[in-house]
Amino acid sequence: MPSGEEPRGRQVPPENPPQEQPFPYRRVVRFESEPLSAQVYHQTQEAIFLESNCSLSSFRLEPPPERPSEWYIAVIGEQPDEVLDEKLRRILEPGESEELPEHVMQQLVERRRLALQSGQPWVENHRRKMRGQGRN
Question: Shortest CA distance to 89 belongs to which of 28, 21, 42?
């Protein structure tokens, strides 16, 4: 087809279009120390709280029963500016980068959506277990 011509016929979308993540910014790290995970979690909360122009949530997840010494911190939301992104990277650096199971990420995304719908600038909830983790 000569350059400048529009393609003719029906345009076929790609077979597997990329799935758009509900929140493009996702950082998850794992810690083998509860006190260190608590310290890092509070630092992420403070960094997010003090930044007036960001839309992020921070979560600290209790270890799953099969790995009782592993604590997770997840930060999800809209891409922050470079300064806050770098600050969060430094804060999370002591942990090991990790992926959470999709069902856990979906629960976090849903909690974030509910918090955003509430219209409150800061929502803080503390739960001991995520659904599906087993122990009570």
Answer: 28
pLDDT above 70 as % of the chain: 71
Domains of the chain: 25-118 (3.30.70)
List, in sequence order, every beta strand (DSSP E) within 1-136.
Answer: 25-31, 56-61, 71-77, 96-97
**125 pLDDT exceeds 90?**
no
Residue 69, CA distances (Å) to 11, 75, 106, 128, 129 in order = 52, 20, 23, 15, 15
What does the buried/exposed string (b/e) look like for 38-66 if buried means 16 or more CB atoms within 10 Å of the residue's CB? eebbebbbebbeebeebebbbbbbbbbee
Q: What is the pLDDT of residue 98?
A: 93
